[in-house]
Amino acid sequence: MKGDLQSEFDKVIEDVPRQFLERTIESKLQDAGIEPTPKRVERIADAIMAGEEHFEIEEDTLHPGVTLAFSDEEIAELTGLIQEFYETQLPEVISKTAAESADKIFKTLKRDWPAQKAWQDGQFAQFKINLELRWGNAFDLYRMILTSAREAGEEYSNRLHRSRAKRNRNKRVALSRLHARACRVAEEILVLMKEGFADGAMARWRTLHEITTVSILIADFDDEMAERYLLHEIVEAMRALEIYEETYSDLGFGPPSKRDAQRTRREFDAVRQRFGKEYCTPYGWAAKHLAIDGKRFSDLEKAARRSHMRSHYKMASQNVHAGTKGITDQLGLIDGSQVLLAGPSNAGLEEPAQNTVISLVQVTVLLYGQNWKIDDILLANVFFKLRDKAIDAFILAGRKLKRDEDALRK
Description:
410 residues; mainly alpha
């Protein structure tokens, strides 16, 4: 549709100089007392455009030997009119034509959409049935882990709210909130997988990996680190304020509230004075305890004994950023496929799934603390068993998919 419209428009634009020439010829013929019939005007225009100086008009014997002369001034005027049309009138013509055509296309799309939607719904319903048949058992195990993790988190949160103990209060609050967010992200990953978006799920696991890394550090160190972590929200708020102040005008928004801005700056100055300049870096809350500058997440991974996941983290980052790896290496494509993936796929789910269950279980067992009771050991072993079963189920489903695909290609 778009190409046809552009072709027609190009033809019209190419014909503009001839239209101006034909108008001039009509005027010349009228001045010479000759009727400017369409046939005469067209024949003369053809001859001039072809560079002919002497020519005859067939069956026109009433006006032999007529000369039509174009002075340099007339040629310059004609050229000026054409140039003026291109510079002033053409943009208006384009705008009007585009608006009218867009309105027609929109009406056509709206008219045809119910049938298109019904077809798409049918296609996607069948896709989801096939996805569930292939990955359903693994999804169930994943869901069991997530449900159990939520129950453990709820119990931990309830105990925290009932407790009046001040010892390690910041640590317990931080772990509870981090765990709740981990469960939420794990649910988001499940939704993406059940809709066929392995690469999107992997991108969300990147966040879960960061949550896991931070949770391990909070659990490993003292309550002061947890306090620094919770108060670091002020540093992030200050950075957000600075960015907003730089961009709100370009966005067409109003300036930030003076009262809110002053409060944010006052709180920022307080934590900077209390904890030092390094605290104000992206990971400055861990700078003192880890003896780092707080600028690199990889330092946190190393301290949390998660450096072995760096390659997975970088893979997940490909689906967050706009680098070339994100358009060349895709989990949703089976090896050897030449398809450009622009929608859901039933492939590649094993990678984000197993990473997620490992991270979620690790965040959850951190809630049991360092001094495990018999009940804690029992529950932790249940989580470990569920994790291993889920990983096996996803791997088996992925391998079967590849075997089936190889068989189809043969």
